[in-house]
Amino acid sequence: MMDQRAELPPRQQIADLEQAAEHIRTARRILVMGCSGGGKSTLSLKIAKRFGLSYISLDRDVFWLPGWVVRDRVEQRNIIASRILEERWIMDGTNPSSLDIRLPRTDFVVWVRMPRLLCIWGAISRWAKWIGRTRPEMAPSCIEKVDFEFLRFIWTFEEKFAPRLVAGIAAHGPDVPVLQLKSRRQMRELLDLLGRPD
């Protein structure tokens, strides 16, 4: 199966990493999205630390209750609606259904758009690292896990979810600049440009 990608309009894409780094330096609210296993949480935490932004994890703070129990959808939206009112944040999470309330408050989007095999490797290696434990960016008692359903979600992400993200950005954030990171090298270069935390 070919990895055919839904694409954003060229005018909205930031391709130059130095230009993207400048956007991140001046942004008050940044949305980081992408497929599981791509590295968006790691990137978000590093940017949050570097610029003193409040770190909001959709997985930890919105979707999941302890023990992998899904929070009520209305309550999810209420939490997001409350958190986006904060002045400075970086929000780690994809969820196309909440782009309508998140994007209008977002200054810059980083789409971690790694190849799916790299995402699968990322998810499996993360599971191996955290086996039997809960990652800091997850809700309490959500022990790290990998199953067939999760791997299938990653494998089909570009086909099923990327078009929804492109449509959501077009509808709710047509003027928000977007950086797409498509390799680990690009991610490392961006972090190098942003510098280390003070």
UniProtKB/TrEMBL annotation:
Gene3D superfamilies in the cross-refs: P-loop containing nucleotide triphosphate hydrolases
Entries under InterPro entries matching the protein: Cytidylate_Kinase-2 (IPR052922), P-loop_NTPase (IPR027417)
Family annotation (PANTHER family): MODULATES DNA TOPOLOGY, YALI0E33011P
This protein's name: AAA family ATPase
Taxonomic lineage: Bacteria, Pseudomonadati, Pseudomonadota, Alphaproteobacteria, Hyphomicrobiales
